[in-house]
Amino acid sequence: MRPARPVARRPVVRPVAEDETPDGPPCPACGTPNLAGRRFCRRCAAPLQVREQAAALPWWRTVWPFRRRVRGGSGRMLRRTLLVLAVAALVLAGFLFFPLGRYAYEDVRDKLGKTSEISPTGAAASGEAPGHPAGAAIDGVTNEYWGAPALGASLTCSFGTPFRLVGVVVHTGVSTEPQEFRRGARPTRADLLVTTEDGKVHKKSLSFNDKPGKQESRMGISDVVSVELVLREAAGQGKGRPIAVGEIEFFRRA
Q1: Model's pTM, two decimal places?
Q2: Could you tell me if 237 and 138 are in contact, meaning their C-beta atoms sit under 8 angstroms apart?
Q3: What DSSP string describes 150-162?
Q4: Angstrom distances, CA of residue 25 to CA of 35, 47, 248
Q5: End-to-end distance of the chain based on CA atoms, in angstroms?
Q6: Are 225 and 197 in contact (CB under 8 A)?
Q7: Angstrom distance (rounded) from CA 126 to CA 179
Q8: Mean pLDDT computed over every residue of the chain
C-alpha cells in the first residue's frame, strides 16, 4: 500500500489575554483605550499623538515671493530683499510724485548740502533817490546803498540761469556803524516776490530788526529767475531821508 499524503494541520487561533488595562486615553480614530505613553493604537495602529494644525497664513503670505516654502529658511533672503526694495520704491515715489514729499526731500537736501552766493546779472528799481541807484544794493559793499524814495518802491534782481534759492541776506540802513545807521531811514518790513522759470510767483513777508547788520531769511524755491523786494514799512523816515538798503545777497544750493 502506498503511504497516505500528509495533510497540513490547520492553524488554531488561540485567544491572547489582554495585557493592557483599557483605562488609558482613547484612540482618536477608533476610540480604543490605550496605555499612556503609546504612540500608536493597539487596535488600528493610528497615531495617538495628533500634530497641531499650523495657524492660517495671512493673505499676503500666500502670494509669491512671500509664500512660505516647505524647507525651513528657503527663500527667506529673497523675500526680505524684495520687501526692502518695495518699501524703498514706495518712499521714493512719495518723495518724487507728491508735492509734500518732494518739498520734504528738497528741504533735507537744502539743510544737509552746502550753499554758495550767486550774483544777479542786473538790478532795476521802481524809484531811486539821486546818487543812490539800484545797482548799489548788489555791488558787494555796504558803504553804498539803494535809496528808495518812499514806501512801496521795489528793487528787482534778475538772474541769467535758473537756480535753487535757499537764502536771502539783506543789509538795511545807510551804514553798519550804529550812529550812522540811526541817522538814515531803514526798512523794517518788506515783501519778497520770487518768480520761477514757469512764471509762478512765490511771496514771502520779511521782518527786519531795527539794528545794523545782516538780516537772514531761509528759502527753498527751485528754478528762480528773478527776485523783487518791495518795501512796506520803515523807521527813521523824514524829509531828505531815502529808505536805505545797503546790500542784498542771494544764496543757492551748491
Answers
A1: 0.60
A2: no
A3: STT-EEEEEEEEE
A4: 7, 12, 93
A5: 127
A6: yes
A7: 29
A8: 84
